[in-house]
Design goal:
Oligomer: single chain
Helix content: 10-25%
CATH topology of the largest domain: Neuraminidase
Radius of gyration: 23 Å
Strand order of the largest sheet: 1-6-5-4-2-3
CATH class of the largest domain: Mainly Beta
Strand content: 35-45%
Distance between the termini: 44 Å
Shape: elongated
Number of strands: 30
Length: 465
């Protein structure tokens, strides 16, 4: 059986081988911030949802260093309050630039501002610099050792404040304040939901092509704060964050024996949920966090099962000749999209959450694998196989299929929390080296995420609270 040509490419093969003001809020350890809603459409300020990205790609956003009332040492890795202010502006610039919607100019190309201008910007000066939007901010040291970060978005031509937010956090969380500010700006201008303050689980790969070590790792959405979770003694595969962000389910192979584990991120402990007696694939959470789907090969067939997130007896959801793999729940939990070759070719199917009403939805030629339901519920991302492996999306009825990538081997899509961007992994032809990439729904804004080693099978978690 050529599992590379079936689901999960290298991963399956490896498995078988082995507005109004927002009051200051404390982020300790996690922030609780909700950006203020856009004002009514008749007040002359920007509102609505961006449907054509070209409308925003030339929007100039100036982001000078965040000012401070007193430059004092902090326990933050970035340094003093002034240094933290500059670092926060750099992170915000990177976030807004990398999503492909805007044209930000960061602190490296802009003069610093005095603290008094945070709330009273010098609009004429920024107009002459060609800025249409302006992000100002402040950083100060609280008496308890925390940092207080303010974030303000202004429309330069209207000379009007569009949004403001304030967070208090432990010094070690300064990057989260930057991501929260970027989320606030992004949501206010685009009308889209936020996604920068989120994390990614993935499989870190090292070693030669025919003997890869695969470890579970997590990082921030921009690749920062990276850490390895497993040691590599057992092969780790196909991680997925739980809906509440507290846990990661993944598949582990040790001496050829598959086990499904749930790793608790905060306590750094894990629990074995299932120990299938045969090769297993792709554990996935239900939206309510109560169930875990997985696939298991037995007696020449592979079927989809579900098991309680607390462990117990598994229930079989499919029972057809062939290979059924890769279940992904719809956001409301009522349906499951999966792949099957029951009709003679690897295609996408949908069924009810209890396994009933199984029906094929992909009829556009080639083969289709690794389906993932959008968090918006309106699209399904998948790997299309027709010579090369490409990331594509289609409607939930199988219509409107279109490609987002065009490389040799792109696979295993995972959605951003707002359903606008998709991450996937790319395998380099000839070497087997893997890397994590992301692309937006236009297919035009594609970029590689930085990882310390090769990476595969990313899982984008929800926005952190």
């Amino acid at each position: 059986m050529m599992m590379r040509k079936f689901s999960y490419g290298l991963l399956a093969g490896a498995a078988l081988m082995a507005a109004g003001a927002i009051h200051a809020q404390t982020i300790a350890p996690a922030p609780m911030v909700t950006p203020n809603p856009p004002p009514a459409a008749d007040n002359g300020v920007l509102t609505g949802t961006v449907s054509d990205d070209t409308a925003w790609q030339s929007l100039g956003i100036a982001i000078p260093s965040f000012a401070t009332n007193a430059d004092v040492p902090t326990a933050a890795s970035a340094g003093s309050t002034a240094q933290v202010g500059r670092a926060i502006a750099e992170v915000i610039t990177g976030d807004l630039k990398n999503n492909g919607l805007f044209k930000p100019t960061g602190p490296n190309s802009l003069p610093p501002i005095p603290i008094i201008q945070v709330l009273t910007p010098d609009f004429p000066t920024w107009s002459t610099r060609g800025a249409e939007m302006l992000v100002h901010g402040s950083v100060s040291a609280a008496s308890n050792g925390n940092l207080v970060v303010g974030c303000y978005l202004y429309d330069v031509s209207l000379r009007q404040q569009l949004v403001k937010a304030t967070w208090e956090m432990a010094p070690g969380d300064w990057r989260r304040a930057a991501h929260k500010c970027a989320d606030t700006v992004y949501s206010r201008l685009s009308g889209e939901s936020p996604f920068f303050d989120s994390r990614i689980a993935y499989i870190a790969e090292t070693g030669p092509k025919d003997h890869r070590m695969k470890r579970l790792a997590i990082m921030d959405s921009d690749g920062a704060n990276h850490r390895f979770i497993t040691t590599g003694q057992a092969m780790a595969l196909t991680p997925r964050f739980s809906p509440d962000y507290r846990k990661i389910v993944y598949l582990s192979y040790l001496n050829g024996r598959p086990r499904i584990y749930v790793y608790d991120v905060e306590s750094a402990s894990q629990k074995m949920i299932a120990e299938p007696g045969s090769p297993a694939f792709a554990p996935r959470w239900s939206p309510d966090g109560k169930w875990i789907l997985y696939s298991m090969a037995s007696a020449g067939n592979t079927n989809i099962y579900r098991v309680s997130a607390n462990g117990g007896i598994s229930q079989k959801l499919t029972e057809t000749p062939g290979i059924n793999v890769g279940g992904s729940y719809s956001p409301d939990g009522s349906k499951i999209v999966f792949e099957s070759d029951r009709g003679g070719s690897q295609q996408i199917y949908v069924m009810n959450a209890d396994g009933s009403n199984q029906r094929r939805i992909s009829f556009f030629g080639g083969r289709a694998a690794t389906p993932e339901w959008s968090p918006r519920g309106d699209q399904i991302a998948f790997t299309h196989i027709a010579g090369n492996l490409r990331i594509a999306v289609m409607g939930v009825d199988g219509g409107g299929m279109r490609y987002l990538t065009n490389a040799w081997q792109d696979e295993a899509p995972t959605w951003a929390p707002n359903g606008r961007i998709i991450q996937f992994f790319r395998t380099e032809k000839g070497t087997g080296k893997t890397s994590i990439w992301q692309v937006d729904l236009t297919g035009r804004n594609e970029r590689r995420l930085p990882t310390p080693v090769d990476g595969s099978d990313p899982s984008w978690g929800p926005v952190r609270q």
